[in-house]
Write a sequence for this structure.
């Protein structure tokens, strides 16, 4: 199966990748920076390569941007990074004026024939990094993320 390149930033939290997608200015790099500041590792900023390896969806950075992140008002920085890891969660980051369900239904996105759990969160909300970590690490009544 061929690989694909998507417009998303990706971080690894304990070897589980989170894809951060959204419109320009929705907070992809900002959310990634806050997660990295709390111990996550950058996988890719803005463009993420996806491929199936041994039946799992794996994220990595295109070689030209590996280990680099654009931080607005600061510049392009070299960050602690992870070369690749399996994708555990896809997060659609939206602006604060969009309505998000308080208790959303379990949702998935299909990427290279793999179903990945999907959440919609506010990209610039202070709680967004904590919500992402919670979705990965804490079981829910709907078993949102496979452990």
């Amino acid at each position: 199966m061929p690989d694909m390149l998507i417009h998303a930033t990706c971080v690894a939290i304990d070897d589980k990748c989170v894809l951060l997608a959204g419109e320009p200015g929705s907070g992809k790099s900002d959310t990634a920076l806050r997660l990295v500041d709390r111990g996550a590792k950058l996988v890719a900023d803005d463009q993420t390569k996806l491929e199936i390896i041994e039946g799992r969806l794996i994220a990595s950075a295109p070689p030209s941007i590996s280990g680099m992140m654009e931080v607005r008002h600061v510049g392009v920085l070299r960050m602690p990074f992870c070369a690749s890891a399996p994708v555990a969660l896809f997060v659609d980051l939206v602006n604060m004026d969009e309505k998000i369900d308080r208790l959303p239904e379990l949702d998935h996105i299909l990427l290279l024939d793999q179903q990945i759990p999907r959440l919609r969160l506010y990209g610039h909300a202070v709680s967004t990094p904590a919500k992402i970590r919670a979705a990965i690490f804490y079981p829910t009544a709907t078993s949102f993320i496979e452990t």
